[in-house]
Write a structure and sequence with these properties.
Keywords: Acyltransferase, Glutathione biosynthesis, Hydrolase, Transferase, Zymogen. Pfam families: G_glu_transpept. This enzyme consists of two polypeptide chains, which are synthesized in precursor form from a single polypeptide. The protein contains 19 helices and 19 strands. It is α+β, with helices and mostly antiparallel strands and about 575 residues long. The protein has a domain at about 40-255 and about 370-435. The strands form four sheets. The protein has a seven-stranded antiparallel beta sheet. It has a seven-stranded antiparallel beta sheet with strand order 7-4-3-11-10-2-19, covered by helices on one side. It starts with a helix and ends with a strand. It binds 6-diazenyl-5-OXO-L-norleucine (DON). 6-diazenyl-5-OXO-L-norleucine binds near residues 369, 392 and 466.
Length: about 575
């Protein structure tokens, strides 16, 4: 048995080392680095750094560039979270999550029989939360930026005006969503995202309406979006097509500075996003469990490694569903949830040779998503400032609604609320009172921008898209580096596994489980589902000499790129 185990572990490590060897692109940069899901956005950020901008200037420019070059997740009408570390070692976090419109109410996505209609929460005008991105970028720049605001919008405006040459990935994605986008934009001509013939790699996609919207933001800052022409365009969309966001909703939107969550993991400082993201709490809980059950004593890919992760995740996602939501609306017991004693008790029931059962609650029938509809980017600069931003429209191209005359997609973030207790959302996540819909409330998120420090110096900047799998992807990248002592490239390339309490299943990338480990997991009762991809990292690691090593997850998303100098 021991020999079979050794062969199985060898098999996983061989696959890992082999795949790293063919994709090894790690290169270090002394001065600054940007890692994002699109090469043009990474280049924009790198240019800002080289012109003397700091990481926060570059982040603003990258956020707006992504709205043009990566419209399925990059956005001006979505939201996100920024985790910040200044060169002085101070931390901060910015919540620019969308909020529910004032006219929203708890049962708004239920039909007469009380059943949730997920089409209403996921598609079209009713699915849209009041966007937070523009106010977020303005606040980030006001507090930490060093360059002129206007200069940070110029690259995105140019890209929108001159057009972006489509990669194969982006052309295919637009084609895949063509019918859904057409369905939500019936009466519109000039929709740049729908053409008569399918998009092809190499086509140029320009968007003059988006260039104008960006120009308004460049000249008027927040008022260029939440007031005036662009705001009117959004409100008229809503009035014409059954949405509920009004002018006051837009005027009232405010991004919020929040105290980041700080924890420890095996002599590393872990800094992550507090509620309304569930990411930071869940990550600290998982790490506590990994420390308690001595994750570092198991080998990567072994039965014990996978079983332990799944058992931890089952408990952590159950807490998420019960306790987490917008802290301004629901008293979240944050201290208790990350308290050592509480977690010791919670994780003490884990048996290493037995699967525990998720509670008998109606399980979600939705499989874990394999496409990347959110986007994460990480930036570090010459002075040692670092920023991790995860931003999203929620689904691919959000609600699929393109604002007529504005040229941009609106989010469908309302689906991140728990529309009805126990009924899963598009990620199979369930929730209850803590995440129920209320006017002006923020919907719970899994986005987990995170920064890790070792001995007082920057160690990792990381994050990922992937809905509910974001948290576990971030977790695995940290333990890959710290417990399994992988190098930066390996820790990103390593195959990933995910579980989330409900559905009571284990999702694994095809290379993650050797036949022997898969067999043993099934023997103790785990239900394994193979997924083509879990998460898409955009990480920065700091070498011992202090150089930045950017790692884009190109194995999982070919357009991702590192740019640095
Ligand atoms: O905030 C959240 O947790 C979700 N709206 C994230 C969506 C997402 O990651 C989709 N992408 N893959």
């Amino acid at each position: 048995m021991q020999i079979i185990k050794k062969i199985a572990v060898f098999f996983v490590l061989f696959l890992l080392v082999f795949s790293c060897a063919i994709s090894d692109q790690s290169k270090s940069y002394k001065n600054g680095v940007v890692v994002s899901a699109h090469y043009l956005a990474s280049e924009v950020g790198n240019e800002i750094l080289q012109k003397g901008g700091n990481a926060f200037d570059a982040a603003v420019a990258v956020q707006f560039a992504l709205a043009v070059v990566y419209p399925r997740a990059g956005n001006i009408a979505g939201g996100g979270f920024a985790l910040i570390r200044t060169s002085k070692g101070e931390y901060n976090s910015l919540d620019f999550r969308e909020v529910a419109p004032r006219a929203a109410f708890e049962q708004m996505y239920c039909d007469r029989e009380g059943n949730v209609n997920s089409d209403w929460s996921q598609k079209g005008h009713l699915a849209v939360g009041v966007p937070g991105t523009v106010d977020g970028m303005v606040k980030l720049h006001e507090k930490y930026g060093s360059m002129k605001w206007e200069a940070l919008l110029v690259p995105a405006i140019k890209l929108a005006r001159n057009g972006v040459v489509l990669s194969e990935l982006e052309a295919n994605k637009l084609n895949d969503y063509r019918d859904q986008i057409s369905a939500q934009n019936k009466n519109k001509s000039n929709n740049p995202y729908v053409r008569e013939r399918p998009f092809r790699e190499g086509d140029t996609l320009s968007n003059l309406a988006l260039a104008r919207s960006l120009l308004a933001i460049k000249t008027k800052g927040r008022n260029g979006f939440y007031e005036g022409e662009t705001a009117n365009l959004i409100v008229s969309e809503m009035e014409k097509y059954g949405g509920i966001i009004n002018a006051k909703d837009l005027q009232d939107y405010q991004a919020i500075w929040r105290k980041p969550l700080i924890g420890e993991y095996r002599e590393h400082k872990i800094v992550s996003m507090p509620p309304p993201s569930s990411g930071g709490i869940a990550l600290l809980q998982l790490l506590k469990g990994a420390e308690m059950h001595k994750m570092n004593e198991w080998s990567f890919g072994s039965f014990e490694h996978i079983h332990l992760m799944v058992e931890l995740e089952r408990r952590v996602y159950a807490d998420r569903a019960t306790w987490l939501g917008d802290p301004d609306f629901y008293p979240i017991p944050v201290d208790r949830l990350v308290d050592g004693e509480y977690l010791e008790n919670r994780f003490a029931t884990i048996e290493m040779d037995e699967k525990s059962n998720s509670q008998d609650v109606k399980a979600g029938s939705v499989a874990v998503i394999e496409s990347f509809e959110t986007t994460h980017f990480s930036i570090a600069d010459q002075e040692g400032n670092a920023v991790a931003i995860t931003t999203t429209l929620n689904g691919n191209y959000g609600s699929k609604v393109v604002v007529e005359g504005g040229g941009f997609f609106l989010n469908n973030e309302m689906d991140d609320f728990s529309c009805k207790p126990g009924v899963p959302n598009q990620f199979g996540l369930v929730g209850g009172e803590a995440n129920a819909i209320k006017p002006k409330k923020r919907m719970l998120s899994s986005m987990t921008p995170t920064i890790v420090e070792k001995n007082g110096t920057l160690f990792m900047v990381l994050g990922s898209p992937g809905g509910s799998t974001i948290i576990t992807s971030v977790f695995q990248n940290i333990i890959n580096r710290i417990d399994f002592e992988m190098n930066p490239q390996q820790s990103v390339d390593a195959p990933r596994v995910h579980s989330q309490w409900l559905p009571d299943e284990v999702y694994a990338e095809s290379k993650a489980l050797s036949p022997e480990v898969k067999g043993k997991l099934e023997e103790v009762g785990h239900v394994i589902k193979i997924q083509s991809k879990i998460g898409m990292m955009a990480n920065i690691f700091v070498s011992e000499s202090g150089a930045y090593i950017g790692i884009a997850d190109t194995e999982r998303h070919a357009d991702s790129r590192v740019a640095g100098y």
